[in-house]
Amino acid sequence: MTYKELLNNFHSAIVDIKLEAAENVISQPQKGTKKERIKIYTEGYFIRITDALADIYSAFTAHIGFDKAQRIFTEFLKKHPSTGYNLDTYCVSFYDYFSQISGSKILTELVRLESEILKNHFREDSPAISPQKLAETSPEDFAKLVLKQRNESVLLEFDHDVETYFQEYETNPRMAIEKKYCSVFICRRPDYQQKRHSLTRAETEFLKLLFAGNNVDEAITRFSALFAEYNQEIEANFQNWFSKWVQNGFFK
To answer: Which of 123, 25, 45, 27 is nearest to 87 (CA)?
Structure first.
């Protein structure tokens, strides 16, 4: 048996809690039994990863309670054991698992928000377009400008206000999550801090048009045709919105 095969067999025995199989690949300890020695690994493996999941999905854990969350994390770990070296990338996959077993759209959306925050840490860097550059752009050139979404960002929409809960759960973990449209733009700053911006539906729809490749003039024209009910809102807020988007590095 090669060293790699030995490690794989031991890992499988730990994950599946097959103590007899693990006993075959370790030597007799000077103190205690093989089973006692292996138990340190089996318990430590599950504790370390479920604690990491509870930390990453802290709002989800707070909302349903630590014990219930730990049971869900343990089942996830048993069915989808970690096989890589990066714990963060493994924890991202919890959303895919939970979205298939959950009967609650509220909880699924909350887990998705936390998963996307983590996932955004690993997206490729891209320089933001500077406010100074836009300020120097003529009105004619600005209308033709195509503004692309930064790589290290994500635009999310939910049917429940999970963002408000995420902001408040540490002080009020039992607060209700309201059924209400919720849109969040998450952007990673150069210092790797994640900045979340709550958006109105009108802002979101306009940004989606820009991110789809329309230049500014095309986005305005199509927005007016598609979302006439928001025309008054965009006329009143467009300049402030654009300033906020640029200052916070939405575009590249």
So the answer is: 45
